[in-house]
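Standup, Tuesday
Yesterday: got the pipeline producing structure tokens again.
Today: sanity-check two examples.
Blockers: none.

Example 1:
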Amino acid sequence: EELRMSKTNNFDVQSTFCVLCGRTDDCPEKYGEKRTYVEYNLTVHYYCLLMSSGIWQRGEEDEGVDGFLITDIRKEVNRAAKLKCNICKKKGASIGCVAPKCKRSYHFPCGLQRECIFQFMEDFRSYCWEHRPVQTFTDKEPREPSQCTICLDLVEHLPLYTVLKSPCCKNAWFHRECLQYQALSAGIFFFRCTVCNNKDKFQKEMLRMGIHIPERDASWELEENAYQDLLHCYQHCDVKRCLCKKGRDYNEPDSKWEIKRCQYCGSRGTHLACSSLKSWEQNWECMECRSIFAKSGNYSKRKKLSLAASEKTNGTTCLLEEPPPKSPRQSSGSPHSFLLQSPKIMCQNLSPCSHLELPASNRLTMSLSPVMSNRNWSLRHEHLRAQRREACNILKELKVQIKTKTTRLNINVENIWSTALKGFRQRIFSPSNTIEVNFSNCKNKSKTNTSAASKHHFFQLLMLHLQNSSLFEGSSGKNLSLDFQAIEENLYFEAGKMIAVSLVHGGPSPGFFSKTLFDCLVYGPENVKPALEDIADVDVAQTIKTIKYANSLSSLQSTLQDCCEFLATAGCLRPVTALCDKNMLVNDILIYHVIKRITLPLESFRQGLKTLGVLEKMQMHPDVFSSILCHKPERLSAETLCDLFTIHSSSDVNKVEGADFWMGYLQDVESGESVVTLEDILLFVTGSCYIPSIGFDPEPTIKFVHIMYPIGNRLLNCLELPITKTYQQFKNKMELTIRNTLRAERE
């Protein structure tokens, strides 16, 4: 501690200067983040460090400055101290032009001022004002000014540093400054041509011309609760005569009082019973939409089409429905483009699959994509993946308790909750027994269906029902609700028990807990401070907002008088003599409504989660379990599936070519160039369309053998693939077999 204090005291004013460019400017848009390390008496601009010619990232990402070791930075500063900047004539020029025979050196800010080009890709090259890359302008280019498609001001069609043209659109011109700000805001996943939406060609050209595209999500995606309003579902019965005695706003899932929204506008609703709908799968249109279609003459035609579609799918989503022409099917995992695959950033001894467990000697584990560079989004994404892998290992430890003795659950898909509840409450049920699931309403049981497949499907349906049940409230991150009937029937305990059993027995990640609910379970409700986002009741939330944003004592007292009865019920009625008292009052209301009000449900839910020791592990590893309880499961991608399957090598098989066909096919499926999805492939092999939190047992494998068509062995989670001469033959066999097999199962 004394050493740290002495270092802090020795940190003088000079340390606020960047050690590479010598400037004190703090402008992240121009020079990157300015970082100060008190313990090293060091300040540096990130771009100055990234572009310096004599330094490489030799450490891990958490070492030094994003992998640039402190000793290497010191050496680079000493090297640059001998070089004079060709622009400002001062020492410390750490960046050199990469053009052959060019000996110009300069500081990063000086280079920007002199219109040098810095390429934030590959090995981070820099070009001086004489050798910088330029865009070609033909004589046929229109010379009159046009609008910049970002700021809408005029831009000259001249070969200037400040002007850039789109490589994919002839009439798209930009100011360099406008493009740079857009790239910093949009990030690598959303930065594209503003005219034609081209991404790959546009980004490649802009990187060449010195536009920095950060490898992170867009700024608007990173804003917390940015789309909260869009998650609100309309729940109100609008028919002329509502039959529900509990009112038009009453909604009870899986009953005749469940509210169905208009299939066209979604802004009108009806109870199933109020419109004589036999099931939730039936389509319903409000009067406004019906009148619009009636006037256009398309209503009857649309009615017939919707009914036909409803009968065809029989209330379930058909995985194998053929997509329409020119509208390829997209898998739920969207393709990623890793542009900044820099050898400069990657020069430490990392392999593409270094984040995986070491493969056994007799198998070949392959990874689809290189490791992403050290940007915030990829770091968070990788951290979440690492936590989920750790959660998988912990759940496997808990699975040791499971005995070979079996307990059979007879489940009716149309009444999933009551039949599951009955099964969990039967006297012979034990959480530590192996669970077998029998769907009692399946007329024809497919021979390819295994007990594991039925169990996966059951837990998926059960977790989905719990998420949308009256036991929880909220939009995405859910808290416990207050349901007196559920308390009497001990349903909160059963819900906690079901989630614990699902996790250990191979069910999906619940992923819908709010941070507040999770913290209450792990740290205790007395140590949790709820936020306004935890309030699901619109009226209560509006009352809290009115109190919180009152700008005068008189308006605050007036508001309190209006909601005096509510405050008295909550036990939050207190004398208010100053405007600042509102903060304590808001905090009292939040604690009451989110925590104190649901004390009984919370305790009951906690007791249920103690099943098989799950709650104890949650409290021992909160960060790990937060990744599967508070975050939605990772969407399937080609990379995920490629990492999931282990390829067994064989002496008489060209394993490299077979693996290439397999990876190429996954990429085609992910990009929508296939009639099946990644979920279909996983379902074909394992009987599950999701990856369980505990992983698969046994782990999925691939074998290349001399067979006509692929075979999915769900008992062994093994995919046997045919050996073909061409990729097209391989793809055709995969499409035909998977599509027909799953279609036969569903029919």
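Example 2:
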Amino acid sequence: GLEEGAKNQFSTFSNFITTINQKKEGIGNRNSPTQLVIPNIKNGRDLPPLCLDVRQKQRMSIDNLPQELKAPFPPVSSLPIRTKTVKDFQDDMEKSKASGDWKAVHNFYSTTFDSFLEINAAFKKDTNSPFNTIEDSGIDAKFVNVVYDALLNTPQDVQKSVLKGIINGLLQEWTGPRTKDDLRAYCILLQNPQFSNTSTYVIYAHLLRQIAALTEADHHFLVHWSKKISQKRFKQVVDRLLQFISLRLFPAKPEEFPPMVKCTWWIPSATKVLALFNAANSLISPPIISYMDFYNSTLDHIDLMEEYHNWQCYGNSHRFSFCQYPFIISIAAKKVIIQRDSEQQMISIARQSLVDKVSRRQKPDMNMLFLNVKVRRTHLVSDSLDELARKKADLKKKLKVTFVGEAGLDMGGLTKEWFLLLIRQIFHPDYGMFTYHKDSHCHWFSSFKCDNYSEFRLVGALMGLAVYNSITLDIRFPPCCYKKLLSPPIVPCDHNTLVGICGVTLDDLFQIMPELAHGLSELLSYEGNVEEDFYSTFQVFQEEFGVIKSYNLKPNGDKIPVTNRNRKEYVQLYVDFLLNKSIYKQFAAFYYGFHSVCASYALLLLRPEEVEILVCGSPELDMSALQRSTQYEGYQKTDLTIRYFWDVVLGFSLELQKKLLHFATGSDRVPVGGMADLNFKISKSETSTNWLPVAHTCFNQLCLPPYKNKKELKQKLIIGISNAEGFGLE
């Protein structure tokens, strides 16, 4: 809407800057952070941090603020009386479009946005009510939306008058704490669609700076008010902030913006405001938008390791790093950070082993640089457990697997095979470590007590090794498992500290045992007399090896009846028992196994959902995407054999497609970056067409003879991918 005449719209802001400088002299305070002056701008590090130290896992919790922060309130200035309604405004717009006379509309916009008081006078639902609570912002959202939707369809002088008014509001001299009317104005101004245009970024930056510098109590209100914004408007504000950060990092026209050295506070301010919207989004269940909508893919192209090291060195001090706000970093970028951090740890451990060997005047051996695992297929679990237990000190070295009696050399393919077979055996119901729930299609930890939980530690170590070595696993744990795995994300120094314990809800139980969760939900909504009709106590029963055992959910629970008054407590304690207490020893072993390999500050950057993606990849197969990214050697994509191949593969069932992926790559899961990250290659095999296809899983390569017709290709391909266990050397 602002593109037409954008070049001379503000004469590159020269007339605005002149006005600002004049006001600056009148105010007499050259260091005021609210002044919209380009020279001598404070560095962004002067702004107060929006979140607490991530290392301590004390991320900002809006609801933890006490009620007292709402009072006392600064004196509120009396608002001008404005009576224009949505219908009045729409009538004015229609008349202006028909007649070409925009005077009434121009007067409305120039008056409404001239100051924070005028903004409240126009958009506050009731000017006589204070609206001082987090529950209701008092903003007439419908009127705001109508006014903003119409703004970009007005003449340029109308749009300019709005921006001039915003500058007047931002230049106001603040003598005390902000009022709730000021916060309302900020909330309304953030939704202005004009800030999608780069020509307004200087004004936008100063708006963001003022909002970022508000007190934590003020942020508390803005977060709760923001969660009431409609999904469409919420997403627009988030996208606008992400675009602002991207274009400041990589401007299409650098001359449009002030030099980076003079506006280092732009990106920190925008990121802190974005953190408010991320906090608002997390308060709603389900969230307003997906957590992935906060990813900024532009950050994939900056020096992420420098960001990570700055954060490691300085934490959440005055030195800004995107790692302080991990919600903005995409899962692909986080994977890069984790991989490089893992590689550096591997190199460091290998170097130390080499130095130790040389210092003892022993001959170095290349095998000492790797975690070498030798296993027999017939004793896979026991051999793997013994190997990992004996080589605890080597877990952070590069993994290499050897199957006893087979000639395969591990360039990655044998490692994938080892993971796949081991996971398949461990999770088999007959093994008894995990229970498979058919209703939810996921595994959960068996609550059966045993003398040794080392095999649970093995599964945790396997997951850690998979992440550490960039291998995806076919594990079906519920999201709750990954939440527990990050509780806490760094192993505590005090071994008496409980691990793997997190806040769980009925929603978490629904993802594992939906039938039981539904029953508990029915109990909560039951309208009759719970005590007389259910005759339950705070005692639960579990079957263990054919024996029924009872457990009290609280002291003397067997003597405490469940009533209408205490049923919420009963449900919460029951859920906590099932997902935390009854499996504590099993999960603690699993937790320590995972962190014995993956102990890294990089885990602090991850959400539970992101850990799941790193471990399991994506189960969604898009063979068309694989076709688009496939490379060819000896073939052209237009060759008849290749066309036959893709006709056959795209017509396969999902099961056969997974078998093909497993045959060619060693895994049937899609990595974080999608099919393109597989680097899948089809090579021409000069062998007889009587031969089956051959795969090099280390290199994700399929060797395909030039079969004469589609029927023959399909037959040979199905035979090959259906009999794909074991390795040999050609």
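Quick observation on example 2: Residues 1-73 have pLDDT under 50 and may be disordered. The radius of gyration is 31 Å.
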